[in-house]
Fold this protein.
Amino acid sequence: MTKTYVLIPGMWLGAWAWRGVTEDLRARGHEVHPLSLTGLGERVHLARPETDLEVHVEDVLNLMRFEDLHDVVLVGHSYAGAVVITSVADRAPERVKKLVFVDTGPLPDGTAQAEFGSPEEQARNAELVASAGEGWKLPPPPWAQVAAAVPDLDPAMLKALEERTVPHPWASATSPVHLTGAWEKLPRLGILSSFTAEQARAMAAMPLFRHMADEQWEFAELPTWHWPMLDKPAELARILDQQG
């Protein structure tokens, strides 16, 4: 059965990061819409200090509206899963069939992406924005250092990350998510790469991650680093293809 996917990348990435997944799903006969959020990927020239979460939510809502998309499997990686896809589904639940969180989970109402990290990480990011991001952009991480812990990583992938990732508009990470709860009625899948389903369920005991465990969840484990669409696109596409 043909399905409709909207694929939204996390921080610093554009639609290009989904290329392998997109090609695989299209080869299986599905309709696939990878999306670069404002200020990222090929839309980097549109980045502004005021590019906040609301702008990114509107990016996705407008894609679904103008492409007249319905029964969407809405896939969000990292930041996009934590705050973007829940916001979209909360406002247009009638267009969404299922929510898929790639190595992330939904943050609760009133929480910003920037609050996800430890106090030390939050302070470090704020300093990077101030010192290297002109006061409004978070530079990409040192990819060679991050990738050093990943065995057998394709050098071409590391080169793509170094060449194509761009600073992320910081206002989108500091904007709190506003949710009514309408999104909570939708079924959801967590595709977990850097943590396990058991860990996800345990995290639900903490207020910040309280949405990680209820009857609407399924989990699939795809062990690798935090960016499975880059090094395991076929495996990720296969899991997505299996969604009803």
